[in-house]
Amino acid sequence: MVAASDEVEGLRSELEQLAEERRWVEIKDRVEALDDTALMSDPKVAYLAAEGLLHLGRAERALNLALAAEAEFRSRQDHLNLLPALNLAGAVQFELGDLAAAEERFSDLLELARERGDDGMVGRATNNLGAIASLRGEHERALSLFRLSIPAYQKVGFMAGLAQADHNLGIVHRDLGYWREAERHFRSAQRRARQLGDERLAAMGRVGLAEISQLRGDHVYAEVEARLALEAYDEIGDELGRADALKLLGSVARAAARPDDALASFDRALKIARQQVNPLLEAEILEERGRLHRESGQTALALADLQAAAGTYRRLGAVERQAAVEEELERIS
């Protein structure tokens, strides 16, 4: 009979290999039938399971595993593993909308990474702090943090980090209305992702480019790209990616005066965002659906969606987005 410790060691070795090859679906499939107690018996197993689950949008389950791994590495004073565990726990908290907790972890990570001279983790910490600043509408701070992450990633040759930084720079430039610059960053992110063979990052880049096309009024191209992104997310099993692509398809259909198609896409996206417990994405979908209801003359439904979106933005500290929705509510009222 195989000893329990041997079983755990075998599972850890298997998950490490899958994570190194970025085979997140296989990690999810491997740990799905195991309960959290079994996974938490080894902090490295808990970490790897949480990492795979987060990549596929399973943030709620990933949280307990990530926090357990972080706590155990901290108690062992295992700084080599504590730094990535801090980053992962913060990333999960960000996805779940707990920005204060995420910011605290990323700030701790930045301090520890600088003390230890870990450029890769300095890059991750600054990139993730930039994502929080971007959500809060602190665009200049976000740009500075994203740009700080790039030389740190370059020092260690972390291509996935460079792709993520490019994607995040694209988002900020899009929000500032600099569409050409945003497009340049999204294309760079997509190119790096393809070099890595990371289908999730490549699909994110495709969605970013489709959003720019929609803003320019090219709804046909935007819809084609959004559907291709949806197919990619379906293939890799990324539920939150699916919701994001469906949200974009809804926005394109709304702009193309196809309200029934738009509503169907928004409803599908909203169901997934709620199932996966992602408050930011849920608020974005509600905001878009609220505008669709307003344009369709369904004032009560529009008010309900927009008020819910504004409330979530307020809770997340997304001040600019909250203000934009509240202005729209005033016009309706």
Automatic annotation (TrEMBL):
What name does this protein carry? Answer: Tetratricopeptide repeat protein
Q: Which residues cross the membrane?
A: none
InterPro entries in the record: TPR-like_helical_dom_sf (IPR011990), TPR_rpt (IPR019734)
**Protein's UniProt keywords contain Disulfide bond:** no
> What are the protein's UniProt keywords?
Coiled coil
Give coiled-coil spans as residue ranges: 1-28
Q: Which PANTHER family match?
A: RAPSYN-RELATED (PTHR10098), TETRATRICOPEPTIDE REPEAT PROTEIN 28 (PTHR10098:SF108)
